[in-house]
Write a structure and sequence with these properties.
Elements: E1 3-8, H1 14-26, E2 31-35, H2 42-52, E3 57-65, H3 70-75, E4 82-87, H4 95-102, E5 111-112, H5 118-129, H6 134-157
Parallel strand pairs: 1-2, 1-3, 3-4, 4-5
Helix pairs in contact: 1-5
Bound molecules: 5-O-phosphono-beta-D-ribofuranose.
Length: 162
């Protein structure tokens, strides 16, 4: 199976990266994590990205806060699918990173998930890999069914809580 690259702009993004890593682990998807900043280590971020396809990566998830250009900078150097996770910071509550990540100019796509949306980023990466992996596709269907069952269980108990 192809690997997922988890690239964070700073280790302060780690709690959001952990949300993604735990979903990938649960689904048995191999991943590799790095701290590469688009502005502090642009050469390392570029070199890793240029080698990613040959190294067996199928999807890259980029996590960054503030003026978050990491996902876009990575997407500029690969045609692998790049998922951007805007990370919340103190000043603007993540709106800065959300807009910086989602408003990519035409031609270089970044699939942006919610602010601090590490879990959905991993699930989206899994869905992309599942296009060519039937076992993973079935695991995602089973996961959805378990989530539906959990909601229906809450539904059947809600009257007792009112
Ligand atoms: C971004 O700036 C990082 O992705 C992080 O979310 C934010 C703060 O970085 P540090 O101050 O932790 O280095 O580049």
């Amino acid at each position: 199976m192809k690997k997922v690259g988890l690239i964070m702009g700073s280790d302060s993004d780690l709690p959001i990266v952990q949300k993604a890593a735990s979903v990938l682990k649960e689904l048995g998807i191999p991943y590799e994590a790095h701290v590469y900043s688009a502005h502090r280590t642009p050469a390392e971020a570029r070199d890793w990205t240029l080698a990613a396809r040959d190294e067996g990566f199928g999807v890259i998830i980029a996590f960054a806060g503030m003026a978050a250009h990491l996902a876009g900078a990575i997407a500029a150097n690969t045609t692998l699918p790049v998922i951007g996770v805007p990370c919340k910071s103190a000043a603007l509550d993540g709106m800065d990173a959300l807009l910086s990540t989602v408003m990519m100019p035409s031609g270089i796509p970044v699939a942006t998930v919610a602010i601090d949306g590490g879990k959905n980023a991993a699930l989206l990466a899994a869905e992309i890999l599942a296009l060519s992996d039937e076992e993973l596709a079935q695991a995602l269907i089973a996961r959805r069914e378990a989530e539906s069952a959990a909601v229906l269980k809450k539904d059947s108990g809600i009257a007792d809580r009112l």
